[in-house]
């Protein structure tokens, strides 16, 4: 049975490390969430370790750092874990050399920073009706050894074909972002999970997930920050399928907020440690 | 344990009605399959009832009729069941008035023939990067009451958003084509099932399936042709997930051919009545 808390201050003494999802917690659909922003600032002022962990693969860590700094949140690159960065770390660790980026620029930026080459789906943004002839003409670059899927607001069928053909010739399929959608002015906007889904269907293959709810992210966070005690970590997010599931997969506590894709009524049915409507009052 | 047959003549006396899938049986990726074409012709010559049942939603029945006539297959419109036609019949029977067509022209042609209005995704083929602002500006037409998904080689993210927003405001979601892919020069080309998959993921809703393996098609075929005895019907196809599953769902026998998406080796693991490498020798 989850505990309803009035704000993050209710449980502030219980944890040292606070891992924040961003979409649906700190902002949503281009607008900041006041209680989320204040909640983060309050924890930082009180000397807590605050990390940002997002499945949003469209931006690099540097971009997120600039956004957070722009609203006076005191953090640094080392506390920001975007799925674009986590994917680059994973691919580097496993010796991949060149990726077909089925997401957008954030992925390319982080991969390049790790020395991994990319071919960008952006090259194919001019939409064409893919006939059999055009399909037959698609010959993926020989040196591509992996495909990364992520949110792509300019996705099209040609890009899907190219990615599918890479995977058919043996490339590793990695999904940076499994979020089905994000909330934008109370309507659902398709997110990276949709690109993951269409490519899994086109190839009949399951992707390797780097973003939440895969525990890969926590392994990297704990290692890079010398954290040893999981009981001192709490995950804050709005999405049961990614944020809260991540908590369960990792063995850490979770706060489900109702400022994003989950409303108060839906929250009652989610198995989470805490539920919170306003992180800071 | 499935029975291997040398050609369709082995079992010709057992059945009166032969339902043929087309992609992977009669043609594949723009090229005709000799044994499939001859198999169909030999059955028609012997006085058998031959029907064509395809999940391919890109063409109308009239277009298929012209292709089949073009290679001297003697048939008529009433023996051709494209998923575009079946979808139109279903929507008409259930009083839908206007569809957002997330497939291509074949669906619009059949819907119009049944008096159903359409808004075509083709309107949005010029690819744009869908920002939050652009997403917020999307207001689906008020009078759209259903969304039809199908193969779409010019599909893009904007079309996905429009379709998802229709479904979010209550439109019925119907999938004309659930095929994951078709075989083109020995490589897999994404088909209508990919569009179905991405839209299901974007909305969190399951589509109503009209094409195989849904038994809806057989109900319509039997009714329109006064067929009463299922034991006299056999389904011929290359795709276990659609054609053979269709047979099981309907309670009719099936012939799995290895000229399409299923190889001889893969066929050994499929539960089907018959397996056949060449429908006619």
From TrEMBL, chain A:
GO molecular function: phosphatase activity
Superkingdom, taxonomy of origin: Eukaryota
GO cellular component: cytoplasm
Pfam families membership: Hydrolase_6, Hydrolase_like
Alphabetized InterPro entries for the sequence: HAD-SF_hydro_IIA (IPR006357)
Protein name: 4-nitrophenylphosphatase
Automatic annotation (TrEMBL), chain B:
Family matches, as InterPro entries: HAD-SF_hydro_IIA
Gene Ontology molecular function: phosphatase activity
Domain of life: Eukaryota
One GO term describing the cellular component: cytoplasm
NCBIfam families per UniProt: HAD-SF-IIA
Name under which the protein is recorded: 4-nitrophenylphosphatase
Lineage: Eukaryota, Sar, Alveolata, Ciliophora, Intramacronucleata
